[in-house]
Description:
- Chain A is of the alpha/beta class.
- In chain A, 44% of the residues lie in helices and 20% in strands.
- Chain A has 2 domains: 26-190, Rossmann fold; 205-333, Rossmann fold.
- Chain A has 14 helices and 14 strands.
- A 7-stranded mixed beta sheet of chain A has the order 3-2-4-5-7-6-12, with helices on both faces.
- Chain B is α/β, with parallel strands linked by helices.
- Chain B contains 9 helices and 7 strands.
- In chain B, the strands form 2 sheets. A 5-stranded parallel beta sheet of chain B has the order 1-2-3-7-6, with helices on both faces. In chain B, strands 4-5 form a two-stranded antiparallel sheet.
- Chain A binds chain B through residues 48, 69-70, 72, 74-75, 77, 79-80, 82-93, 95, 109-110, 113-114, 117-118, and chain B through 61, 107-108, 114, 116, 118-119, 121-134, 136-137, 155-156, 159-160, 162-163, 166-167.
Amino acid sequence: MRNTKKQWKKLKKLILNRSNRMEVQKIATREGYGKALVELGKINPKVVVVDADLGDSTKAEHFGKEFPERFFTMGIAEQDMIGAAAGLSVSGKIPYASTFAVFSERAYEFTRNIISRNKLNVKIAGSHAGITTGEDGKSAQAIVDIAVYRALPNMVVLQPCDYIEAEKMVFALADYNGPSYMRLHRTALPLIHDNNYKFEIGKGEILREGKDAVIFASGTMVHESLNAAEILKNEKIIVYIVNIPTIKPIDANLIIELAKKTNCVITAEDHNVIGGLGSAVAEVLGENYPCIMKRIGVYDKYAESGKPDELYKKYGLDSQSIAEEVMKVVSKKK
Amino acid sequence: MVKKDLVLELKQKAKDLRKEILTMVYKAQSGHPGGSLSEIDILVALYNYKLRIDPKNPKWEDRDRFVLSKGHASPGLYSVLADKGYFPKSELDGFRKINRMLQGHPELSTPGIDFAGGSLGQGICFAVGIALACKLDKKKCKIYAMIGDGECQEGAVWEASMSASFHKLDNFIVILDKNQVQETGMTKDVMDLGDVSAKWKAFGWNVIEINGHDMEQIVKALDKAEKLENKKPTIIISNTIKGKGVSFMELNYKFHGKAPNDEEYKKAMEEIEKINIKSFK
């Protein structure tokens, strides 16, 4: 077949568009977790990893390949994994215990009674959190993990919004002596940060300045919120977008400051609206600066199987839904 | 051959500490006497004969560890720790009382305590982690964990039994205080464990079975378990009687978690006083 000039032009455009799209680098937070564990393992011999047969998915397997003697497979037995991690921690090790977020909850009582109660230095990581987990359906979609871990005394609760932030968190946790839960995702996410990013436990990050409202978002929802800000800009609504990587201890100062500036607060999370980021922000504002507020999240129900973007649309977590909710709440303000 | 003097000395100690347990629970009017009386003989042997520990330096890095997985039996352990000098004996009077050190279930902040139990099936998993760390660091210390027979109904016990065997933890010795009774009745009636010895063997463990009130057997078993470095963890199935030493508490589930009243306390103390240590087993 002979290509005409016109056909060539069309093809060239298509190729260019494709390569443009590929330039927006997307990579999952769990990849950042796995990569950082290896790098951390190289400089810190105290770091050990326990795994409950999901290292290929949580990406902890990279550490296992590099440091087999410091990587303990515990089988599909989350209680034993968490209990053993606690035992390793009192023996001077820095254990990272990873599995799917939902399965980490199987060992919740172990985490409460051993790790949280005694403030042990165990780093729990729950991957495949939120409905963004997608096709596996309800059983695999963790939507209460933030709520349950946040309720435990002494726990630090973290959620990265990109690969770089996940890496930085793994390192920050090694320097923090205490228990933590880190929430990771299955799906690839665009990079927001570069290697110069400084992550600090307990600090939020303003990604976009605004005036009419503020969206506090965490994890995958940071990206949806950034896109929503673009949609809202066309409607002449200018919103702050704030990344909240530390859900506990929450950055109360920043939340109050921006609430005062906007008098209109929205939270966005891929989690039940009960007990997660929205609740944490509401707790701060309720006691310090009550104002108009809207929680965006999963509304106290289970989702279903489907592609992540389809689910986000159906359950009101996509950028369009966020923009619509913001418009509604901003109009209430006036 | 076990030295006769040693055995008698340990037996006398166990007799004395039985009184401490009863007094502690009586004064608190709360606590778990039954499982404390069943475990006390083996605890006395561990702390006075076997464990490499230093009460003056409770956090000594190379110490042997003792994990009381059945954390409700804290009075037994507290009586032993006080006797060893980890804390003053006067602390026993504050057991379960507000603003005092000795909590209902052990706390890591209490000197000599290596595990904060109270939720069954957890200590054995925790001990697996310590044993893994000791192996990784090539430490010579031994990790001991005591579990109950009722506790074996928790699935996590079997998770740990699998992983300890899989990871070849021959520095790990579990003592099963098989006292036959749990909160609501005889273990065989609540959830029978079946042939528990065969179960642990099938999970790849060395199994030693003894009468857990016979001090000579206890000492021999502890010696044997320590030397069995054959890439397998070891369990000592210690056949005991819940409430041992007090006739009306023996095999009586009502004294799993109940304190004696004035009359019962008096009678119990008289019975312990009358124990002839030479024939006690």
